[in-house]
Amino acid sequence: MKSKRLLSLPERSIFSVFCTAGFPRLRDTKEVLTRLAAAGVDMIELGFPFSDPVADGPTIQESNLRALRNGMTISVLFDQLTELRRSVDVPVLLMGYLNPAEQFGFERFISEAARCGVDGLIIPDMPFEEYQDRYKPLYREYGISPVFLVTSRTDEDRIRSFDAEDPAFLYILSSDAVTGGALKDSRERDAFFERLAGMGLKSKLIVGFGVGDAPTFKTVTRRTHGAIVGSAFIKAIATVEARGEDAERSDFARSSVIESFVQSFQETR
Questions:
Q1: CA 20 to CA 28: how far, in whole Å?
Q2: Residues involved in catalysis
Q3: Pick the CATH number of 12-266 from 3.30.1490.20, 3.30.980.40, 3.20.20.70, 3.40.50.300
């Protein structure tokens, strides 16, 4: 069952932002989430770093590597998220790859996520059949919603199988390339979105990959429920300076970069 936070999402123009835990600096995670929520985003995807993020473009790949160099680990991440719900009231989903979650111990991973108030998990390389056969009972036990990725090549029966699992949402890939890439031809993309909209699915359709500015966000949400902005946000916060002599924290208090970034999307919604 979805969390109350997921059930409370608006019906249209859901604005979600992706950020990488431990980026730009190790102790930035909680402040970035808090500032995003306060600025008015509807949902946050928090990436847990991995050394080989195959579905990600160069910007997010580099943020993963930088976070790992900063000292980010799964254990550090959950320590940082312990008091998440004191300052963040929007849905937060963890996104990453199966390998580090398995190395941590998957049940331990999902139980820690639940303890911290995480609403869902996006694990692109988890095969759907393995989710059903092995992982689904753990998601149900700990009240964590799955998310499944849909491309233009995903057949209708499989999409309906995803929908039947009551996911947090269906993650609609605007491109078959990697994150941060250009959107596919608009006519092909629009036909894909229209096909999904016409299927009568219960799940919300949230678009990712290649949504980097407000006009693109407005375009892709005409036929879907919302969109995720990732690489553009990572670029926006990458150059924020350190907080004085504290090398593990960025000085967001002296920068309005997060608030300005969110505002630039709010004006078109």
A1: 10
A2: 45, 56
A3: 3.20.20.70
